[in-house]
Amino acid sequence: MTLFLPPLAADDFRFPPVSDALAHPDGLLAIGGDLSAARLMSAYRSGIFPWFGEEDPLLWWSPSERAIIRPSDFHVSRSLRKAARKSQVTVTINHAFEAVIHQCAAIRGPEQTWITDQMREAYLALHQQHDAHSVEVWQEDQLVGGLYGVAVGQFFCGESMFSLIDNGSKFALWQFCRHFQAQGGQYIDCQMMTPHLASLGAKAWPRDEFIHALYAARDTRLKTAYVPHVIADFRERQS
Q1: How far apart are CA 20 and CA 84, in angstroms?
Q2: Is 146 exposed, middle or buried (0-12, 13-18, 19+ CB in 10 A)?
Q3: Residue 148's pLDDT band (boundaries 50, 70, 90)?
Q4: How far apart are CA 210 and CA 233, in angstroms?
Q5: In sequence order, what DSSP letters do the residues of 145-175 get, joined into one string?
Q6: pTM of the entire structure?
Q7: d(CA 60, CA 53)
Q8: For the chain, which has fewer Cβ within 10 Å, the N-terminal or C-terminal residue?
Q9: Within 10 A of 110 (CB to CB), how many other CB atoms are there?
């Protein structure tokens, strides 16, 4: 089957309306362009994200259904609390962005990851201009879990997570939800719904509902949400 997608212009960072996204494959919207910081932020502010393999052209997506976590809805089980205390982890924000994105790619292997060298460089550039952020989980001085994503006002658009210990990425997302909510954050976009995300409290939103919420929240900046610091220390207290 032949697919017809609008190619993105080199000098225009606008995207087609998300309502133009294909039904099959679900959400495929546009092709081409680049991964410049300006284009990426235009995409995220419009409810669009890049996703493509090493040998593919740049592909841009806005699926018909979005996995969204409201920070207050994150499901914290007794076993997760117990595991965090037992693991004695420390959770930080923006202490090791480059290491987190490297681990997110490495844990999947070169045949399974979409986090190519080109993608890593693009998100590092976003991090350097304070639009992309990481959450790190540490045991002593070892990085054992984390996540990264893009800040769009009161939205945080999650990109990927990794764990080198049991529950490592859950610790990161749990403590980020607490921190994000305290700073006025409203929604965490997890892109595609999975049973794992559903078990953590994610809900499936229709694209129209997601876009409406994004447009209402994207211009309210969280001034101190991403200042590098420790957001949880299970070596010192129970949470």
Answers
A1: 44
A2: buried
A3: very high
A4: 33
A5: EEEEEEEETTEEEEEEEEESSTTHHHHHHHH
A6: 0.94
A7: 12
A8: N
A9: 9
Q: What is the dihedral of CA 75, 220, 133, 85, to 10 degrees?
A: -30
Q: How far apart are CA 132 and CA 49, in angstroms?
A: 13
CB atoms within 10 A of CB 23: 8
Other beta carbons less than 10 A from residue 57's beta carbon = 11
Which residues, including other chains, have CB under 8 Å from residue 176's CB and lie 6 or more apart?
91, 93, 135, 147, 156, 188, 231
Strands 229-233 and 90-93: antiparallel
CB 161 within 8 A of CB 193: no
Can you tell me which residue has the tokens 């049991």? 166
For 99, the 3-state DSSP assignment is helix
Tell me the per-residue pLDDT of 86-113, one tens digit each, with 9 for 90 and over: 999 999 999 999 999 999 999 876 655 6
Return all residues near 117 (Cβ < 8 A) that are at least 6 apart: none
Look at residues 233, 238, 237, 239 and name the one whose alpha carbon lies nearest to residue 139: 233
